[in-house]
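**User:** Once you have settled down, spend some time on the protein underneath, comparing sequence with structure tokens, and judge whether sequence predicts the tokens.
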Amino acid sequence: MMKFLSDCGPQRKYCLVAILYCTFFISLKLDVASGQEHSKMLSLTPLQQAEALLSMRHYDESIKAYQELLDGEERSYAVRGLIRAYRSAGKRKEGLQSMRSRLAAAREPADYLYGLGYWFFLEEQMDKAQMYLEEAVE
């Protein structure tokens, strides 16, 4: 490289140095930008993080994130998100079993009844959907 630079004229040296500086600053800017995206993800609420994971198609991670929210104040949102995550991941059987077992163990079952109604609505099984949704509002 040094021999190459010594064979170059002064204008070519300046041009090469300018290219190296530009390359360095562009790569630095990209590193900062990717770091900002990561820090933005960290500044999201847990529900927003779960939604972001789902939208980025990180289905298993989003399932775990939604499951962690089921005991909190945002349970109704978490149930719907969990259903979307299971369905998007192609884990319909596992998702349906999860909702049914949570319903059986729930002290306050309305969110899980709604979730099952939503599940069957998405599956276009309207009779089952209606049954669970009606039970959820009682």
